[in-house]
Design goal:
3-stranded antiparallel β-sheet, alpha+beta
């Protein structure tokens, strides 16, 4: 069955807004990957995995939880973890509380890698995004991004710990966001 009233094409402000967002969605990941590859031999996805583990209690998360934080399938995460394990930056271990689950554990070398990679990544994020915006624009971008993320997936996304802290075992674990009340 066909829709008797197909949606009109995007025009004017709608088209300009969509084109601007689509361009950022395409260009920003490549720019983040390029900096991290050049400076830390990591992809942005791999950095996110290591970063999430660096913020977790005991530097450990279940693979299924880490997959949710990374907005990734378990198979994609597993391939990345295999690469990170081969470099000695993390390891997998059986979950002693549930033998059906696997834990992802950040190694000391992995914690060092996150600490080494973070300043350059933060500089790039600031240079490409945050420094280009006023404080009100930053707040509006955050709010708009949360609304879009909620429309895509209602179970939320990774939200950074409440207070910024350097990576390490003493920091809070990431937690999934609820309905818009950050990514």
């Amino acid at each position: 069955m066909t829709d008797p009233d197909p949606p009109a094409a995007l025009t004017g402000d709608e088209l300009e807004t969509w084109a601007a967002l689509a361009t950022v969605v395409e260009w920003l990941p490549a720019a983040l990957d390029a900096q991290l590859q050049r400076d830390a031999q990591l992809t942005h996805f791999e950095y996110g995995v290591l970063y999430a583990l660096s913020r977790a209690p005991d530097l450990t998360l279940r693979m299924s939880v880490l997959s949710g934080y990374a907005n990734s399938s378990l198979s994609r995460l597993s391939r990345a973890v295999t690469r990170l394990e081969s470099k000695g930056w993390m390891r997998r271990a059986p979950d002693p509380a549930d033998g059906r689950s696997t834990l992802a554990v950040l190694t000391d070398q992995g914690r060092d890698k996150v600490e080494q990679a973070t300043p350059g990544h933060v500089h790039t994020v600031r240079e490409l995004v945050l420094d280009r915006l006023t404080k009100p624009q930053t707040r509006h971008l955050r709010e708009a991004s949360l609304r879009i993320a909620q429309a895509i997936r209602s179970d939320g996304s990774w939200v950074p710990p409440a207070s910024p802290a350097p990576p390490g075992p003493a920091t809070a674990a990431p937690s999934p966001a609820g309905p818009p009340a950050t990514r």
